[in-house]
Write the structure tokens for this entry.
Amino acid sequence: MQLLLKNDISQVPLLADFINQVCDKFALDSNLSFQLNLVLEEAVVNVIQYAYPEGGEHTFTLDADKEADTVTFVLRDDGKPFNPLTQAPDVDIHLSAEKRKIGGLGIFLVQQMMDEVDYKRTSKGENVLVMKKRSN
């Protein structure tokens, strides 16, 4: 399954519909659906807000697939190179929200809630974030 999105925050409701369709198709429970909505919204909003600093309309994709007991999401954009696994700021979750620096909490959340998270920059100039979650 694939969702095509524009770099516009008004696209976020389309994501929730897509995740619901994915969860229905792959028979994923509501607790997993909630986690996936949270994680994928964070990842997609980051692309919308930061991948295209020059502006203009761009499109990017989110693919979903299930193999055995693992659901895989692949977020692919042609925005500026950014590896969230190594370039996002470190997060001290023990600090209060007021004392915490801005940034990094989203990818921290993604890494905590997903079973595997990988990033690569392709020779075609694409950022590819692969997120896997076991469904059992």
In short: Confidence is low (pLDDT under 50) at residues 100-104. The beta strands are 2-6, 59-67, 70-77, 116-121, 127-134. The helical segments are 12-25, 30-50, 84-87, 105-113. The longest strand covers residues 59-67.
